[in-house]
Amino acid sequence: MQSGTLRRYLPILEWMPGYNRQMLANDGMAGLIVAIMLVPQGMAYALLAGLPPEVGLYASIVPLIFYGLLGSSRALAVGPVAIVSLMVATTLGTLAEAGTVGYVAGAVLLAFLSGAILLGMGLARLGFLVNFLSHPVISGFSSAAALVIGLSQLKHLLGFDIPRSHLITETIWHAISHISQINPATFGIAAVSLAILLIWKGRLGGWMKGAGVSAPVTDAVSKSGPLVAVLVTTLAVWFFGLNQSAGVSIVADIPAGLPPLALPAFDLALMQQLLPAALLISLVGFLESVSVAKSLASKRRQKIDANQELVALGAANIGASFTGGYPVTGGFSRSLVNFTAGAVTPLASIITAVLVGITVLVLTPLLYFLPKATLAAIILVAVANLIDFKIVRDTWAYNKTDALSLIVTFVAVLTIGIEMGIVIGAGLSIALYLYRTSRPHIAVVGRVGETEHFRNILRHEVQTHDDLLVVRVDESLYFANTAYLEDELLVRVADHPKIKHLVLIMSAVNFIDASALETLETLISRLRDAGVTLHMAEIKGPVMDDLQRVGFEDTLGEGKVYLSTHEAVSDLKPGTKAKAA
Amino acid sequence: MQSGTLRRYLPILEWMPGYNRQMLANDGMAGLIVAIMLVPQGMAYALLAGLPPEVGLYASIVPLIFYGLLGSSRALAVGPVAIVSLMVATTLGTLAEAGTVGYVAGAVLLAFLSGAILLGMGLARLGFLVNFLSHPVISGFSSAAALVIGLSQLKHLLGFDIPRSHLITETIWHAISHISQINPATFGIAAVSLAILLIWKGRLGGWMKGAGVSAPVTDAVSKSGPLVAVLVTTLAVWFFGLNQSAGVSIVADIPAGLPPLALPAFDLALMQQLLPAALLISLVGFLESVSVAKSLASKRRQKIDANQELVALGAANIGASFTGGYPVTGGFSRSLVNFTAGAVTPLASIITAVLVGITVLVLTPLLYFLPKATLAAIILVAVANLIDFKIVRDTWAYNKTDALSLIVTFVAVLTIGIEMGIVIGAGLSIALYLYRTSRPHIAVVGRVGETEHFRNILRHEVQTHDDLLVVRVDESLYFANTAYLEDELLVRVADHPKIKHLVLIMSAVNFIDASALETLETLISRLRDAGVTLHMAEIKGPVMDDLQRVGFEDTLGEGKVYLSTHEAVSDLKPGTKAKAA
Predict the structure, then answer these.
(1) How far is Cα B256 from Cα A254, in angstroms, rounded to an integer?
(2) Which among B267, B413, B548, B574 is placed 20 to 30 Å from A388, CA to CA?
(3) Which residues in chain A touch residue B134, judged by CB atoms under 8 angstroms apart?
């Protein structure tokens, strides 16, 4: 037991003993490929967050090691991701000027708060909270966030400043109306980068396969798009001196050396101000991470422990905050690359971290001439996948309520803001669920032919009786629907003046809360005054236990509790010609 | 149809045509008795709200007429009530000094806002919103509010000032530690008033019945307690000059004449500040009113239209705001008195209004010597009924979750405040409901003997199979429980390695939202990869309609949809010895 518990909290103890050379080869290749992706992406996402590029690299070293030691996923690639970077930008945007020291300190503090929240939630086993974000809300949020992210890169792609705005129409309008300020060289670099990224991502694999290149090579090459784009455009800027002659914005000096080991600046007032945003960043980051981890784990029949993931991501973020990084989480695209490149254990992550560490130690001078337009193009291609309009149509076809949640979240994120947008979406989806359960489907049922089955009289040819009403309530009885149920039943009784017995089929009632119990007691006495006896059938075990504990059978008076509807109808209408049970 | 619609919006058209002398006699008597109660209560509640006594009288004239014309209840007595008065006091307490002109203007504005909110909710048909306050939350709120109200009267009963405090312990401690400042004459008046009220309420009826007095007379006399207390103590103060000689606080000058007809002061900033409180006052007031109205209506087989009630109460509050009144609603005790005194139509309310009008026109000089201690005693006796500790024990016995909501609401109202307390209680009860539905009961079932019935294997002796798992999910499938369901099913499949078929019994699933549909699709393909086919049984009509619209049967692949569990098991295990359907 002892070692089992320990293994649950330190998953490394599970895979380490059986580790062999073949696994190391796989993990090594995967670690290398992810590192090649991560260096430009890390810098790009840091820029998206309004931070200097090295902060993205710092966030790609220690957090990966911490996650590798603690995480329950074998293939999750942790680090800076697009949506979290955007949320950091909007949070700090109102507090400090982007890129300044105070701004960086704010980002570091956000990572610390986010880490503490995740760790605390993991220890309190609150992983389930994330289930309250519905898929439509997440879809709407992702699509809108991707649009906001894409538009935020316009200035880097076009080479002139576009002021930050809540309204996307304002951003687009500013870009169009100032299009004469475009920097042709910057725009050219962006176009070349986009072309390389799209070709490498799309057609290249097909061409190589057509030329008879083996699948693993094809696969590896088609993932090198960002690296190729970085190489081509960096060389072009350096060779033609485009940063001097044509005003192309470049990454320039990146401080060499490992990330600084330092405490976050614990400013209490600032912490209080950042707390709500840190909570949302944690929840959204955790959600993205755990859904990727789950989908990868299930492909290899492995399990993800949501609470252990919270602990691991919490440690990763705290690690980021002590090494000059900003909030991280498990990213979708890099994790998928890690997985398909063959990562079998978290050692792949640790290898990635070591390679990124070497990069910041010795390779930063090579990144001096890297144009920001190339990083913007990498972001643009990465987030384009997140925009999904087909899902709106599919959701609309299946369920209008869910489609409404999706659309409202999408619109709210675009018009009100990214944080409030997801809060509004989540609140709406919960409100709509509550509204739905507050007006349950109530069916009057009758016997199908000579069988023991009872079905809705509106949907089937069934046999009914003048003085016996059999009603099925399709929802648990709780405070929000109990008044509705009472009204509906009384109306149905009023509509059938000959009724003497009312049978309530309880097969879909999973619990009865105290409000509903009180209403049932009132209902029974009101029906009794009107000469109607209430009976119940098919009460579930747990519900019956609760009712018996408060002596509900006395409350029912002459009413009875039947095991099945058939039994109830046979007892109350013994003359009915139906096969005996 | 035309006149039906009109009659729905103007209920007076329904009862006016059949009105006769006998009805007028009944309504007249009820109207008189309620007026006798209402004059001292209206002044007492106005003092509780921190307002001059005449504001309570003004709020007891026009609102009653408006409700009489528009309300759907035949017996509801509208006017100032204790809880709403307390909420007015706590809202305005932070804004202005009690009793000043700005304070009165704030109360009038609250009535206007509250009226506008109620009217708007009625026109938008939002009456259902009130169902989201559960009975345990209301119980906890009422008990705590009654305690707060009772303690707020201590200063009038003891005759020395006790500063307002959030903490009841502080109030009690202040009273005890300053008990030497007690005003003996005031305390004596309070004690006499309390004795009269309690004797009239309790033993007097029994004594009179024992003496052979007829029931109607007994009934009328036992309700005259407040009037007797007012007469006795007013005369005592006047005769002995206790206001001068012994420092007894009296009502003193009440401006004679009908309420002033005036516009509320439309101060936009103040309106914004008061809006949240006005919303809560509206909801709590509406809740109290509609529950009284419903319980009285059902005794005479009449119906209450919740949305029409919103309109009527909205008009009543707007009426109050234009005639110098403060927020009103239908009160519990006066409505019950109105009903038992024989009110058959809202004309009783209108008669009450006329009598209160006559009082403010000509009788106010008689109230000059009325001691405030008597009014405090009237409040104390009225709210004592609201404190109910037995319900805590009963709720705890039935359902710990509901008991938790009750206790948290009670404690929050006492410690944090009356408005935040009810918000916290309502939020908690909704959160607990969501938590409960997010972890549904999942039962593995088997066949009971040779029957067609399937029951939980943990509760019954049932027949199961090695390669067939039959599982019943006792909750609708929606975003909050879909991940839990997936995990639980996969664990159960992992625990039974021989399983080839998994049958999901859907009898308790009332809907499947888009998130759950997506999860089901993932689950089916994961199970398929593990060599398990998913089948479904007993899907409800509306759920099946939704699933068919998106071609769910294709998603199921080899899995089938069965009408009954029996059919599924017979088909998948044809060798089973069970009676054919």
Answers:
(1) 84
(2) B548
(3) 478-480, 513-515
CB contact under 8 A, A399 and B453: no
pLDDT of residue A62: 96
Residues of chain B neighbouring A474 (CB-CB closer than 8 A) = 510, 540
- Which residues lie below 8 Å from residue B258, measured CB to CB, with a gap of 6+? B61, B357, B360, B361
Neighbours of A467 (CB within 10 A): 12
Give this complex's ipTM. Answer: 0.81
Ranges in chain A, pLDDT < 70 = 1-5, 96-99, 101, 166, 298-299, 301, 575-581
Which residues in chain A have Cβ-Cβ distances shorter than 8 Å to B551?
Answer: none
Nearest CA in chain A to B295: A522
> What residue of B is the nearest CA neighbor of A393?
B550
pLDDT of res. B145: 86
Higher pLDDT, B121 or A22: B121
d(CA B446, CA B467): 13
Give B191→chain A minimum CA distance, Å. 37
Sign of CA dihedral A309, A310, A313, A318: negative
* Cβ separation A513–B430 shorter than 8 A: no
According to DSSP H, which parts of A463-576 are helical? 479-495, 514-529, 541-549, 552-556, 565-572
Say whether B502 sits in a helix, a strand or coil.
Answer: strand
Segments in B10-75 forming alpha helices (H): 12-15, 21-48, 53-58, 62-70
Rounded distance, CA A406 to CA A414, Å? 12
Contact predicate B318/B22, CB 8 Å: no
Contact at CB, B513 and A474, closer than 8 angstroms:
no
Q: How far is B123 from chain A (nearest CA, A)?
A: 18
Residue B240 reports pLDDT greater than 70 = yes
Could B438 and A133 be called an inter-chain contact, meaning their C-beta atoms sit closer than 8 Å? no
- Determine the pLDDT at residue B301: 66
Residues in chain A with CB shorter than 8 Å from the CB of B287 are none
Chain A hits for B479, CB-CB cut-off 8 Å, are: 131-135, 429, 433
**CA dihedral of B385, B386, B389, B390, whole degrees rounded to 10:** 70
Question: Going by C-beta distance under 8 Å and a sequence separation of 6 or more, which residues neighbour residue A8?
Answer: A305, A308
Q: Which two tokens stand for residue A427?
A: 């609140």
For the beta carbon of residue B170, count every other beta carbon within 10 angstroms: 14
Q: Are A290 and A304 in contact (CB under 8 A)?
A: yes
Distance between B560 CA and the closest CA of chain A, angstroms = 20
DSSP assignment string, B130-167: GGGS-HHHHHHHHHHHHHHHHHHTHHHHHTS-----S-
| Cα angle value B181/B186/B190 (rounded, 5°) | 120
Contact: A398, B549; criterion CB under 8 Å: yes
Nearest to A47 by CA among A125, A113, A99, A118: A99
Q: Out of A128, A301, A439, whose CB is closest to B438?
A: A128
The mean-pLDDT minimum among A90-99, B150-159, B196-205 falls in A90-99
On chain A, the residues whose CB falls within 8 A of the CB of B581 are: 451
- Per-residue DSSP letter, A502: E
User: What pTM was computed for the model?
Assistant: 0.83
A532 contact partners, CB below 8 Å, separation of at least 6: A493, A499, A500, A501, A502
Query: Can you tell me the distance from the alpha carbon of A431 to that of B569, in angstroms, rounded to the nearest whole number?
Result: 39
User: What count of CB pairs under 8 Å joins A to B?
Assistant: 147
CB atoms within 10 A of CB A411: 15
